[in-house]
Amino acid sequence: MSKSLPYSMKDVHYDNAKFRHRSLFKVITQTLLTSNMRRECVTCSTGKFLGLLMIFGLACLMLTHTNKAHSVSDGLAKGIATNEEHKEVTDIGIRFKKLFRRAPRLPPRLSPDEKIFHHNFTGKLNEPNVEEQWKARQQNVKDAFTHAWSGYKKFAMGYDELMPVSRLGVDGLGGLGATVVDALDTAMIMGLDDVVSEASSWIESHLLDRIRQKGQVNLFETTIRVLGGLLSAYHLSGGDQGMTLAQKGPKPTIYLDIAKNLADRLLSAFTSSPTTIPFSDVVLRDSSAHSAPDGLSSTSEVSTLQLEFNYLSAISGDPKYSTEGMKVLAHLKTLPKTEGLVPIYISPHSGEFSGENIRLGSRGDSYYEYLIKVWLQLRDTQDGNFTYLHDMYEEAMRGVKHMLVQKSTPSELVFVGELPVGPKGYLSPKMDHLVCFLPGTLALGATKGLTKEKAMKDNLLTFEDLDNLKLAEDLTKTCFEMYSVTSTGLAPEIAYFHTKDYFESGLDGGNKSSEYVNDIIIKHADRHNLLRPETVESLFVLYRITQDPKYREWGWQIFESFEKYTKVESGGYSSLDDVTTVPPPKRDKMETFFLGETLKYLYLLFGDSSVMPLDKFVFNTEAHPLPIKSS
C-alpha cells in the first residue's frame, strides 16, 4: 500500500470544499468583508470608484432578471407576449449566464489510501481483485496439503494414518497405506508433481505386495478409499482417454492392474454370502470373507460400493464387478421401507433389514447419497433401465422432509433428526456431522450437476427440485452454524438441537456471540472433531450450483479454524478432543480423509468451477472423482 500523504482526512475534505458551488452574493460579500479589501477601499479613490461601479452593475443585473421573470409570467397569464419580446428576454438571459457562468466542478482528490479503499469496494474494479483473492486462498489450501503430506512422509510413510503429535504411523485400515492412495488424486488435481511422484512410486513398489500379504479389511472402507483412489488416479493420469493431470508417476495401467487385483479379492464378500448382501469383512491374503461379530452389515456400507465397481467394469471390460454391486441395489429396491427411509442395519444371512433405527448419520448416510449418484453415473449408458434408483431417491427425500426435518428453538435452524426406535417412536433432535453430506446431495439431485441458473433457463427443474434445493440451502446454513457456534470455529462430531420438547442447559458451544448459541447443544462426549469433510463438501456443491459467494466465505472461515487449531508444526494436522475450549486438546490422529476429501473440496471450492464439473464427474463418498460415461 502506498505511504499516506502528510495530511489528515480533514485536510482532504477541506481541500475539496473549494470545488463546491458558492453563490455570487457570497463571493462578493466575503470578498468585501476581508480585512485587506476593506482597508484598500477606504484609502484608495480608485477602489471607491470600482466599488460603486460594482454595486451599480449588480443593481442592473437584478433589475434585468426581475423584468425578465415578470415579462414572461405576465405574457403567459394575459396571452399578449410576442415571439420577438420572448426572444429578446431569452437572449439577454443567455448573455448574462455566459458572463457569470459557474466554473466546472472538479472531482474530489483522494489520498492514495482512499483510492485503494475505493477500488476495493466499488463495482467492476473489484472483480479481478476478488478472483486474485480466491487464487491466493486456494494456494493456502495447497500449502496446507503440502504440510500435511510432509508430516505423513516424514513420520508415517506406508502406514495407514499419521499420529502427528507423537510423530508415528499407525495401521487402522488394514495396512494398505491408505493415506498414500487417498491423497494421490488430490495431489494430481492440485498439480503437486513431487507429491504425485512420491505417492505413485510407493503404490507401484509396495501396494500390490501389501494386498497379497495383508489380512482382514473392511469391504466398505477399502472400496471407497483404496479402490476409489486407484480408479480416480487411473483416469486423472490419462487412462480411459481421461485427463492427464499427472506429469510424473507410472503409466495408468499400473493403477488399473492393482485395482483389479484388489477388487477380485473384495468380490469374495459377495460370493461368500448366502444372499445378495455382501459380508462386511474380507481377508485379502486368501480371498475369504465373513460377517461382523454381530452377523450384520451396515445398510450404508453394502450400498456404497457401486460407483467404484461400475467404473472398474467399464474400464476393464469385465462386467462381474458391476454385476455384483448392482445386485445389492436391485435387492434393496424390493425390501419394505417407511416413506423411502430404511433401517441402518441389514443381515447378509437373511437379506432383510434388521432393527428399526432410522437415521442419515453413521451407517445410514451414503445409502441415500449413492441412490442419486449411481443413477447419474448410469443414466446415459445403454446398460439397462436404472430409473428405479432415481425413484427410490425421490421417495426417500420426501420421507426425510416429512419425518425427519424439524426447526430448532428459538432461531429456527433447519435440522435432520433421527428415529432411534423406528417410525412410530419419538424423533431425536440429534444430528451427526456426517449428515452434512445431505445438502450437497439434495442440490446435486435437484440440478443434476448443472448450475441453478442453467437448469432454470432450460426449464429442467420441477417444483420438487426447487423445494429440495431450498432445503439444501437451509441445511447448509445449519451445518455452518455447527462450526461458528463453538469457541474454535470447528464443529463437533454430533450436535443436538433445542426444540419445544428437548433442551439441556450449560451445553452450548462456547461462542457466546453466536446468534444460535441457544439452539445448538453439544454434549461432552460429542465435542471431538475428526477433520471431517461433509460440510465443506456441501459448501463446494452449493457454490458450484448456486454461485452464491457466501459458501466460499464460509469455507474460508472453516479453513482458517483448521489452520489455527489443528495444525502441528512438525508436520500434519490433528483431530481435536474438544472444540468448545481454547486451546483445544489434540487427539493425535490425522484421518486419511483430511487429505483425500476435506482439503480437496476446499481447494475446488476456491478454484475455477470448470475444474471437475459436476455434470461430468461424480465424486464417490471419499471424494474420488469418477467420470460420468455416456453412451
UniProtKB/TrEMBL annotation:
GO terms for biological process: carbohydrate metabolic process. Disulfide bonds join 436-479. Its cofactor is Ca(2+). The active site is at 221 (proton donor), 365, 493 (proton donor), 534. The keyword Hydrolase applies. This is alpha-1,2-Mannosidase. Keywords: Calcium, Disulfide bond, Glycosidase, Hydrolase, Metal-binding. It catalyses: N(4)-(alpha-D-Man-(1->2)-alpha-D-Man-(1->2)-alpha-D-Man-(1->3)-[alpha-D-Man-(1->2)-alpha-D-Man-(1->3)-[alpha-D-Man-(1->2)-alpha-D-Man-(1->6)]-alpha-D-Man-(1->6)]-beta-D-Man-(1->4)-beta-D-GlcNAc-(1->4)-beta-D-GlcNAc)-L-asparaginyl-[protein] (N-glucan mannose isomer 9A1,2,3B1,2,3) + 4 H2O = N(4)-(alpha-D-Man-(1->3)-[alpha-D-Man-(1->3)-[alpha-D-Man-(1->6)]-alpha-D-Man-(1->6)]-beta-D-Man-(1->4)-beta-D-GlcNAc-(1->4)-beta-D-GlcNAc)-L-asparaginyl-[protein] (N-glucan mannose isomer 5A1,2) + 4 beta-D-mannose; N(4)-(alpha-D-Man-(1->2)-alpha-D-Man-(1->2)-alpha-D-Man-(1->3)-[alpha-D-Man-(1->3)-[alpha-D-Man-(1->2)-alpha-D-Man-(1->6)]-alpha-D-Man-(1->6)]-beta-D-Man-(1->4)-beta-D-GlcNAc-(1->4)-beta-D-GlcNAc)-L-asparaginyl-[protein] (N-glucan mannose isomer 8A1,2,3B1,3) + 3 H2O = N(4)-(alpha-D-Man-(1->3)-[alpha-D-Man-(1->3)-[alpha-D-Man-(1->6)]-alpha-D-Man-(1->6)]-beta-D-Man-(1->4)-beta-D-GlcNAc-(1->4)-beta-D-GlcNAc)-L-asparaginyl-[protein] (N-glucan mannose isomer 5A1,2) + 3 beta-D-mannose. It is an enzyme of class 3 (hydrolase). GO terms for molecular function: calcium ion binding; mannosyl-oligosaccharide 1,2-alpha-mannosidase activity. Ca(2+) binds at residue 621.
